[in-house]
């Protein structure tokens, strides 16, 4: 279901094939690599602050470490636009191969960078450079892989296939939290500070060559090949960035609305919550990581179910009740944790939050990729996704930590999620693209279920 006007109809989709499966595998590896790295940075942010930002108080060091984390996200929209334009003009798979090389280089640099005690001010600059390289690469990672997976998916399974992009992130959360838990639980503080925190980044860098090999051998989708042929023959005009705002601005706002609540919830509950409960509620970090691991299992298993349901009932028909329900449950969940902090309450809250996140975010890749026409799809998904993630995801840990320090309130994360939910609902509900998508979902599913009730003829 493409919601914007197209220059021509896409070619008929091929049945499920080796190409679609290969695209799925490449997506899982690339997205898993991305999230494994960034979540490890958050989990070990306290140690990274000591190793690279050992200036002033522990609060200042921690803020500098989180600010460096956030800075990597500030360049994501730039990387997303540049890589998106490259993908729309040259090819999706070539752009994704470049992304993998950049991500591998940034992760390896972070894992090998000497500490402040060895290099002085050059040490945090190396961390900054690594985060900038990763930020530029990650700007194209999720969006471009989502486009490839959805374009190669068979009809009626766009949301289901796209949901595996989300499952790959859950798999990375499993591996990252599990690896971090094992290191924290089995190494001394001295060993963790000296070398233990580097292990996840060095492991992550080893995945890069495998991901590059697989992605380099993924063929372009039939839809993109048809578009490229049309451009060569002059049947349609090549994508131009200056036309994007005029032609796709409304679609981009809708796409941001789709993403904002999911990314805000994910970054707070899965990335920042372990650090939050350690610093604010004084619960052990390793226990919070165990809860995140359990949530990762739920996400990994249920994201495809969420995508399947979105294909059946309509992604936009499910979007509104799910986001509103999550909005209403956020404060009670945080009250449940804060009023009497305990590991049992934390685990229960994390499991409930994971179920909501799965239901809301499972269809996101398919929803984003079907909003834009083929010639602007990579750029549109990359720009809207990265703006949403940068403003409401990557900056979330620093924003919430700062507001918590200023206000002294334990409920700042809940306020943040509620605010993100309201922005999401507004952007999807009040854009023409969002209204058209909901109407299309209702019409499609009404026709589908009516057809199901028609008795067979003799």
Sheet of most strands: none
Question: What shape does the CA trace take?
Answer: globular
- Please report the first level of CATH classification, the CATH class: Mainly Alpha
Which CATH-level-2 architecture? Answer: Up-down Bundle
Please report which band the strand proportion falls in: under 5%, 5-15%, 15-25%, 25-35%, 35-45% or over 45%.
Answer: under 5%
What are the low-pLDDT stretches, counting only 5+ consecutive residues below 50? 4-15
**Distance from first to last alpha carbon:** 33 Å
Number of strands: 0
Percent of residues in helices: over 70%
Give the SSE string.
HHHHHHHHHHHHHHHHHHHH
Give the CATH H-level superfamily: MFS general substrate transporter like domains
Radius of gyration: 22 Å
Q: Report the mean per-residue pLDDT as an integer.
A: 82
Structural class: mainly alpha
Task: Please give a structural write-up.
By secondary structure, this protein is an all-alpha fold. It has a single domain (18-453), classed as Growth Hormone, Chain: A (Up-down Bundle). The chain is built from 20 helices and no strands. The longest helix is centred in the middle third of the chain and has 36 residues, at 244-279. The two termini are 33 Å apart. Keywords: Cell membrane, Membrane, Symport, Transmembrane, Transmembrane helix, Transport. This is Major facilitator transporter.
